[in-house]
């Protein structure tokens, strides 16, 4: 595996993911049924040092993006259940630690897989979404189904989705639109979400074949 020049926090995140067994190399069948030479499972960031590495990488990516010419301003980080929940909560905490003057009052929310019909009820836990700018934080984009579901839930609650941040852009391709033509161009899963919703989809790292790229503040897709 080769890598372009990465900023220190991206390199630390990559090393933590590999050494912690979160990023594995081999032959893996993804949800999209595509065979991939690597597999990334953010659910394996359950150890304190690994969670610190990924939350730091998310937070510093957000800070870099918002110091660029194309900032993504938000009020709430939203972590889709289940893997996105610890990612959103730990990233909010890290943002407040790194830049308390800007992010000290940023909130988090996450959804329930099944609506609760007692107590506080509803589909959402955490900060109310109505009228708020929401940045979704998750691990990867495969077919984009889970991200579309999250966007639908946020909009149903009156939130305004301003972007999506994932840990890894696997350059996932969707089936060709006309199916049977193997020469037809295959659309990017991330690119389709950007086009459909008109929002930026950002990543900490991009895995492009055997190369690891760190696109500083860039939309990946």
Automatic annotation (TrEMBL):
<comment type="function">
    <text>Catalyzes the transfer of a ribosyl phosphate group from 5-phosphoribose 1-diphosphate to orotate, leading to the formation of orotidine monophosphate (OMP).</text>
</comment>
<comment type="pathway">
    <text>Pyrimidine metabolism; UMP biosynthesis via de novo pathway; UMP from orotate: step 1/2.</text>
</comment>
<dbReference type="GO" id="GO:0046132">
    <property type="term" value="P:pyrimidine ribonucleoside biosynthetic process"/>
</dbReference>
<dbReference type="GO" id="GO:0044205">
    <property type="term" value="P:'de novo' UMP biosynthetic process"/>
</dbReference>
<dbReference type="InterPro" id="IPR029057">
    <property type="entry name" value="PRTase-like"/>
</dbReference>
<comment type="subunit">
    <text>Homodimer.</text>
</comment>
<dbReference type="GO" id="GO:0004588">
    <property type="term" value="F:orotate phosphoribosyltransferase activity"/>
</dbReference>
<protein>
    <recommendedName>
        <fullName>Orotate phosphoribosyltransferase</fullName>
        <ecNumber>2.4.2.10</ecNumber>
    </recommendedName>
</protein>
<keyword id="KW-0808">Transferase</keyword>
<comment type="similarity">
    <text>Belongs to the purine/pyrimidine phosphoribosyltransferase family. PyrE subfamily.</text>
</comment>
<keyword id="KW-0665">Pyrimidine biosynthesis</keyword>
<dbReference type="GO" id="GO:0005737">
    <property type="term" value="C:cytoplasm"/>
</dbReference>
<dbReference type="GO" id="GO:0006207">
    <property type="term" value="P:'de novo' pyrimidine nucleobase biosynthetic process"/>
</dbReference>
<keyword id="KW-0328">Glycosyltransferase</keyword>
<dbReference type="Pfam" id="PF00156">
    <property type="entry name" value="Pribosyltran"/>
</dbReference>
<dbReference type="InterPro" id="IPR000836">
    <property type="entry name" value="PRTase_dom"/>
</dbReference>
<dbReference type="InterPro" id="IPR004467">
    <property type="entry name" value="Or_phspho_trans_dom"/>
</dbReference>
<feature type="domain" description="Phosphoribosyltransferase">
    <location>
        <begin position="55"/>
        <end position="179"/>
    </location>
</feature>
<dbReference type="InterPro" id="IPR023031">
    <property type="entry name" value="OPRT"/>
</dbReference>
């Amino acid at each position: 595996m080769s890598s372009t020049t990465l900023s220190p926090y991206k390199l630390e995140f990559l090393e933590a993911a590999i050494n912690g067994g979160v990023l594995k190399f081999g032959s893996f069948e993804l949800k999209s049924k595509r065979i991939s030479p690597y597999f990334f499972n953010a659910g394996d960031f359950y150890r304190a040092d690994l969670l610190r590495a990924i939350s730091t990488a998310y937070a510093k990516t957000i800070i870099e993006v918002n110091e660029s010419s194309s900032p993504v301003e938000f009020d709430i980080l939203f972590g889709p259940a289940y893997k996105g929940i610890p990612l959103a909560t730990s990233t909010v905490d890290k943002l407040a630690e790194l830049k308390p003057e800007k992010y000290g009052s940023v909130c988090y929310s996450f959804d329930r897989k099944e609506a609760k019909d007692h107590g506080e009820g509803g589909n959402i836990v955490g900060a109310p979404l109505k009228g708020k700018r929401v940045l979704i934080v998750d691990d990867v984009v495969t077919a984009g189904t889970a991200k579309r579901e999250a966007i639908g839930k946020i909009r149903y609650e009156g939130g305004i989705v301003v972007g999506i941040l994932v840990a890894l852009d696997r350059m996932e391709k969707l089936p060709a639109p006309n199916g049977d033509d193997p020469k037809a161009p295959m659309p990017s899963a991330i690119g389709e979400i950007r086009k459909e919703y008109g929002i930026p989809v950002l990543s900490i790292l991009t895995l492009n074949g055997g190369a690891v790229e760190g696109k500083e503040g860039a939309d990946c897709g």
